[in-house]
Design a protein that fits this description.
single chain, mainly alpha, 7 helices
Length: 134
């Protein structure tokens, strides 16, 4: 079987389960993303990092609540229209190009990720998707 038409929508369909929002995943946020979030939520930007982030490698990362989900997860993403680039790109991330096993690992947690295509087709689809987002 040929897999020439592998597209993002055939290998991933978001089920809005929130599994990608769970655990300390390192969702870095830029100043521009922070501004979009505080404007969307109409909250004080001065204390955003202290209240909603942890710092990792000197950069702000969205914090996790006591339930291990992102602080902005409440059955659905409460900042979905302005969610950070890392969230918007999921699961089309560079680490899959480095090691296709990352796709298969993510698929064990995310019910929307399909693994029934050849690894080469998945990697090519992800490579094309990442190129579009540059």
């Amino acid at each position: 079987m040929l897999y020439k038409n592998v597209t993002p929508s055939n290998i991933f369909e978001c089920r809005q389960c929130g599994e990608c929002c769970k655990g300390y995943g390192g969702t870095f946020v830029t100043e521009k993303e922070i501004k979009a979030i505080v404007d969307y939520l109409n909250i004080d930007p001065e204390h955003f990092v202290d209240k909603y982030c942890q710092v990792s490698g000197g950069k702000p990362v969205l914090a996790q609540g006591r339930n291990s989900y992102c602080v902005f997860w409440d059955g659905l993403c409460t900042i979905h229209p302005v969610k950070p680039r890392m969230c918007r790109n999921w699961p089309f991330i560079k680490s899959v190009l480095v090691d296709i096993n990352n796709w298969h690992i993510m698929a064990t947690l995310c019910p929307g990720i399909r693994t029934d295509f050849p690894d080469s087709a998945i990697k090519e689809c992800i490579r094309k998707e990442l190129t579009k987002k540059l």
